[in-house]
């Protein structure tokens, strides 16, 4: 397999010197040379076998060149994952619920600080193992188009614009702003058109028309390429008949040629096996052998294989399927990433080498994790019971997730020595003289409830019952990780587990036993995806949706319940009333999906969330009632905190084309801004809209602005009529004409 054997009779080729070489004198170590010169020098010194070893995620040590082992597979979805103890931030969908790109940047900057510090310390000890590296396979910018998808929790929600601005901020924070070095390397995944069903992901073909492809599934990827994301991961599934990891249209035509992406493309883990596994074996059956799969991937522009299929590249060369030059071209691309990270430079060459270990799991990062959790939680109902006093006589905390650490984590998580459960957060928030009773009360997912349950009696004699229900990564998540799921981590049943609802019914019955002294029930829901909460809402005096809130999740829940802060999270995904309101799970058409194309009234609309105060929107004014297609438009609005509690408000701007010649979204989010207002205070906000914000996507995937009327809405939720019915501020609207 070695290069010498293949080229020993070719006088034009210099055989690599396989002896131990003084590495600090080699050209690839010379920081004064260009990146391309250094990469080519290193390539020239490698045998074919060594090159192949450097193209799979776990790369072996090359002793003679003093190159240590390195593993490209590292995780940082919401904190450095699967490595040393580090800060655990709320799950990505919770960050999506903040609608706050600045906050996303602060989070990812903290994560990359910790990642560098961990790498510096572990590398010093020679711990060059998986999950200790600097190439992070995050963020997941797939569109959460269907609530059944178990991995939707890893995304920022259903909206391409929101996903794009949060994803861009996250990439910038991960990669840093040094002109010469990457702080860490980010990766946009899974390219493209990937969102379940999880059980079929290795052989599923997502069929999508040009309009939906370019309107919904590709914009966030384009946005991340625009901010120089270092890597893109191709998905397991096929898109329009071609596996994503050999999809010439997606990788070559779109990613490389149209978007001019310069980074490396890598496979999802084991995805190349799917190329030669036949359909009856659960694969795509695109080719017949591992060598053919490896060759096809190289020809398709895949530089890095997560898995071992590239170990057959030597056979592919022998069989004449590809040449060593083909391998060199792809290896050069992925090696550039390691050079940009400074991994071949003397220690101290880049400023990130000096990040100290004490930033890991620091108090400042813990405070940031709590801030994200506070801003992510969505108040769905409040009949006036919240905020609670913290000096009541007796509190009853119950439910399967009240004392659970699992629900703080979500998936792709790190670990931390101080995970604050919801029970612990509430316990710390109340006065020492108040009594707190805790009972589990119900299992997470059991077919029936215990016929003898001593817990429910507390609902009748406590000043308030706080019941923590929902799901966890035991039920939803990735194929193979969700241990209590028989649907590979997807949630094909949209309801809460029946035993939980039955338990809540019993609590309500006990709480209402004395008609003259009914006791309130506050329900906290943990989940990474929408759930049918119609009966929960009917049985509860207040409902707080907490997502998977990270290491300070319990503190953040308590801060909201007891009024230390006002809730300000907004739903980044629509909650349908039932699955009957949306198309089949495997239907990738956007018709009838998300707030953009759903015509029925949902249970909770996109962008919705209640507060402890009230906000008024008035005085919306456009800079002109009529503009040309090439002009920008300025829109102003006055926002007033008309209540008596200081609070954040998430201001949302939507555009609707009223005279389009093709099917267009009912309205679409084009700007958002999080503001903080004290009671009685008003502020005037200005938003600049560009021609891009008024473009529609035609059936062939092209974009243009059509003349006609456009509505512009500004408010604290999406313009779906359910928003105002549920208590969101009434949106202000203006109409303009584009000539």
UniProtKB/TrEMBL annotation:
Pfam families: Fn3-like (PF14310), Glyco_hydro_3 (PF00933), Glyco_hydro_3_C (PF01915). Residues 649-718 form the Fibronectin type III-like domain. The keyword Hydrolase applies. InterPro entries: BXL, Fn3-like, GH, Glyco_hydro_3_C, Glyco_hydro_3_C_sf, Glyco_hydro_3_N, Glyco_hydro_3_N_sf, Ig-like_fold. One of its GO terms (molecular function) is hydrolase activity. Keywords: Hydrolase, Signal. Belongs to the glycosyl hydrolase 3 family. PANTHER family: BETA-D-XYLOSIDASE 5-RELATED (PTHR42721:SF3), SUGAR HYDROLASE-RELATED (PTHR42721). This is Glycoside hydrolase family 3 C-terminal domain-containing protein. It comes from Maribacter polysiphoniae.
